[in-house]
Amino acid sequence: MSSSFKLFYDYFSPLSRSIIILLEHNKVVYEKTSVALRKGEHLSKEYGQNVNRHHKVPVIHDNDGLRLAETVAIYHYLGRKGIISERWYPTDVKKLMKIDEFLQWNHNSLLLTTGSIFYEAWLKHFKDISGTEHGMMKNVRDPTNFVDIHNSLNMLENVWLENKKFLVDDEPTYAELIASCALMQVVGLRLFAIDNEKYPKVSRWLQDTKDYFNPEFDTAHQYIYKYGERFNGPPKIGLTIRAVLFLRNLMNKS
């Protein structure tokens, strides 16, 4: 069966991973094109003109000439085109809107807070190889700077998972993927650890989500696991130019 669309992605993008796991779990045939964010490939003029004018991933190009960015829009496209089944894109409006409600909440809460931690701990190292300390590690190491992610975890624990096994219903939906991939951006890289006693429902939910979507889940997170094990947290403060270049070279081989 030939593919009907092409996906531009990077495994270091949690939103890319959420779409890939959804597609792979549903055995969807599609074409994949890797975009190395760490190399700045998405920032080129050619990328903006030919792939995505917003210079982000994920993006899909279909055979009818549609170019579509924004993960939630891609999810709706996959559902309305019948690429994913009703199991993953309900025809029941109430069920679909409950999924959409979580996706909208996630964008300005969990995804934003985990993304901020990842940026402070990792991405700044790839923007400056001068060896200058930017104070990023002090911000990341200080527990008081994790207030926002704890607020998000409290919402997951006490609101979204208050009386059900998963975020929207008692069975997984796409909400599980978009939330778990956001969390794994910091948990998998060992930038943050979920307190199992403080957030027992979140801990159980995250493990249940992994179990449900494996092996696709672990495959999509292989590089996150790899660098989490390699560095066991953020790259160390005050890196020398040689150390930063080594880190860049290591990531470029992934």
From TrEMBL:
InterPro entries reported for this sequence: Glutathione-S-Trfase_C-like (IPR010987), Glutathione-S-Trfase_C_sf (IPR036282), Glutathione_S-Trfase (IPR040079), Glutathione_S-Trfase_N (IPR004045), GST_C (IPR004046), GST_Theta (IPR051369), Thioredoxin-like_sf (IPR036249)
Family matches, as Pfam families: GST_C, GST_N
Keyword Nucleus: no
Gene Ontology MF, one: glutathione transferase activity
Domain GST C-terminal: 92-235
GO cellular component entries: cytoplasm
Any single GO BP term: glutathione metabolic process
Transmembrane segments: none
Superkingdom as given in the UniProt entry: Eukaryota
Compartment(s): Cytoplasm
Domain GST N-terminal as annotated: residue spans: 3-86
Keywords: Cytoplasm
Main location: cytoplasm
Keyword Cytoplasm: yes
Matching PANTHER family: GH16740P-RELATED, PTHR43917
Family the UniProt entry places it in: Belongs to the GST superfamily.
Name of the protein this chain belongs to: Glutathione s-transferase
Species, as recorded: Chironomus riparius
